[in-house]
Every structure is written in C-alpha cells, then in structure tokens.
Specification:
Rossmann fold, 10 helices, alpha/beta, VC0802-like, 2 domains, eight-stranded mixed sheet
C-alpha cells in the first residue's frame, strides 16, 4: 500500500528518518509530506508510532481535471460503496493550488456531491456530512490539472496526543516539539533540559521518545477505527508490538520555567502519562535553573514577542546568550526563535540554522556548541 504522511515544513527529513527506522519502504520526501509504502498494518502503525506526522493519508485515485464537470466525474468514478454506506457520515477537505480552480471550499463541495450522488443512485439514500467525527474523512488535492483523492486515516491531527489537558499562552505543537528533538539528534543517553518549558511539551515528548512510548498511546480514537475494513485483531497486534519495545527508564529529563503556573500546567499534563516520574520540574529562571553535570542537550523555545508579548526582548535574548555561555559548558543548545533581533542579541555564533514554522511564524532553529573556555570539547559534544 502507498501512504502519504503529512508534516510541517522543515520536518520532512525527520519524518523520513522515522519511517526508515520503523521499516517503511520507498520513503520519499515531498513538500510538507513524506510518501512511503508498507503492508496493511501500516495504517495502524504509522498513526500509533510516528512522532513527526500530522496525518496519515491513503491515496485511492488520481486523474486530470480542468473544470468542475471533470472533477465531479473523476470523483464519481471511484467505487465509494467500498468505503462508505448510506448510514455512514463523511467530511471532505480540499487543498487547491491550481489556475483552473480558485476556491478550495467549492472543490470540497463538488467532491462531496459526487460521492453522495453515487451512493444515493445505488441505495436510494445518501450519507450525511459530519465535520467533527465523520466515518470517512476524505481529502482532495488539486495541483494545476492533477487531482488526487485520499482517505484520512487519522481523523483529528496527530499532534493531539491525548495527554495535553491544560495549555498556557503560546503552547508548542507536539509534532513540532518532537521534530525539534529529532533534528537536534538527541542520543537519549545524556541529560535533556528545557529551561523555558511552558506547558511541558518538550520534556514530555522527550520522555516519550526516550522510553520508546508510542506517541499516540494516550489517544482514544482514530478515523480508521470506523472503517468497514477495520481489523480489531491486527490493531491489537500492532499495539502490543509497539508496547513491547517500551523502556522503563531514561536519562535525566528536566523542565524549568520562570512562571509557577507554567510548571503547574506541565505537571498536570505529564500526570496523564505513565512517564511523569522521569521528568524533574523546577520553578526557576534560566539564570538559576539546575544544570545537570557533564554533557547534555538543551532545546527550548523562548518568547518571540508575537503570541506572548515580552518587554525588552533584546535584553531577554542577551540574558539567554550569557547564560548559555557561562552556565552550560559541555552542552549543546538548540533554540527556536521567530524574533530576528533576539536571534542576533544572543551574541553566540550558531553552528547550524534550520528554517521551521511555529504556526504561521517563520522561525530559525539554532544550534550552539557550548565549550568550556576553548574548543577542546568540540569532538566530545553531543552530536
């Protein structure tokens, strides 16, 4: 079977690496997506285990179209009774980048019409639309005159892991957090620290990753569980196999924040997992947070003065640069920021820059090697 795993721009390589590690074949990076092949069990496995995927889509038909009539006929050519009955519900989402079609909502409407009209002609009854929890979520993608119809096996996007109970201001998306950890190349045998942890997403994702806990273990439902061909026995087998790889212990993981309510929220969220005992939370600013001895990895997401207003933004980033330089020798630090002035105010030269998006905000993910007075630690730093 062929699949399309959607992700955020900039995380394609991380997602492709995950798929190869899990054993997928024909892995190919696309724009904000990765295509791959696997057996039927991959409908379940990819949804359950992938950390950097937003949705798992299954292509079922493609055709050319330049007008609404060709679109309608192309969609209607699919045998929809294989996927849907009149008693089921559906929802259609369209993604359009074409000179022939201007409105994604209209494309979605025509696609829906083609599906329900076919079933009504066959059964004398048509399925209803349910935008919140449909039996069959359908996506239609049009790029110029090429149209692809895909089934969305995930339903709600996969960043909804099931453990986030409360949020603070400007929470970090779980898929983005996991992608940052993958891009940073955390070897998981050295301490991990997020000194501006907010609602705790990075430390929690780090603990899930270090213990090989499936990313969606705490999620209750996926779209594929409503499908006609859902195989309960195979689903149980996939879950048991994933759980058998779980580790009980991990390297020390630390989350700290200057705001006491952020730490409270982080603890509440972590409490809805079984890895909360692996994370040490601390109410402290970056200048005074605990620093695990030896080498380690820091990954954090300071305010940008966008969704979370900050006075004296350059002073904040100057403090970050000074703290990194003087308090964390032997560490490797990765900082995600969408503030250009703040980026320069850090005052340290990044050894790597990766372009990412935090929501709609263009960001840079910056890597800093932190040496103890000289570059003698360079070869020993976390890779």
């Amino acid at each position: 079977m062929q699949f399309i795993a959607k992700t955020f721009q900039g995380l394609e390589s991380a997602l492709a690496g995950e798929l190869r590690d899990l054993g997928a074949t024909a892995v190919e990076e696309l724009t904000r997506a990765v295509s791959f092949e696997g057996g039927r069990e991959w409908v379940y496995r990819a949804n359950l285990e992938l950390r950097t995927a937003l949705r798992i889509l299954i292509p079922i038909h493609s055709f050319t179209c330049t007008n609404e009539k060709e679109l309608y006929e192309g969609v209607r050519a699919i045998e929809w009774r294989n996927y849907l009955s009149p008693d089921d519900t559906l929802a259609v989402e369209a993604v359009v980048n074409s000179t022939f079609f201007n409105h994604s909502r209209y494309v979605a409407l025509k696609t829906k019409d083609a599906i329900v009209d076919q079933l009504r002609d066959q059964f004398g009854q048509r399925p209803n639309v349910d935008l919140k929890s449909p039996t069959l979520p359908v996506q239609v993608h049009i790029r110029e005159n090429q149209c692809s119809v895909l089934l969305d096996s995930s339903g709600e996007p996969l960043f909804k892991r099931g453990y986030r109970i409360e949020t603070g201001p400007a929470p970090l998306n779980e898929v983005l957090a996991a992608g940052m950890l993958k891009l940073a190349g955390w070897p998981m045998d050295v301490p991990f620290l997020d000194p501006m942890c907010g609602s705790g997403t990075l430390p929690i994702e780090a603990a899930l990753m270090a213990t090989h806990t499936p990313s969606q273990w705490y999620r209750e439902h996926f779209a594929f569980q409503k499908w006609k061909d859902f195989d309960q026995a195979l689903w149980k087998e996939v879950k048991n196999e994933a759980w058998a790889n779980k580790e009980k212990e991990a390297a020390p993981i630390f989350g700290s924040d200057i705001h006491p309510n952020a730490i409270r929220i982080a603890q509440v969220n972590a409490a809805h997992t079984d890895i909360q005992h692996l994370i040490r939370w601390e109410h402290a600013p970056l200048e005074r947070c605990a620093v695990p001895e030896g080498k380690g990895l820091m990954v954090f997401n300071p305010p940008y003065n966008e969704r979370m207003p900050v006075e004296e933004i350059e002073e904040l980033y100057q403090m970050i640069g000074s703290s990194l330089k003087h308090r964390f020798p032997g560490y490797q630090a990765w900082v995600l920021t969408g503030n250009e002035k703040g980026m320069h105010a850090i005052g340290l030269r990044p050894s790597r820059r990766i372009a990412l998006f935090n929501g709609a905000i263009p960001c840079k993910f910056l890597k800093f090697e932190l040496y103890d007075g000289s570059k003698k630690f360079k070869k020993e730093a976390v890779d």
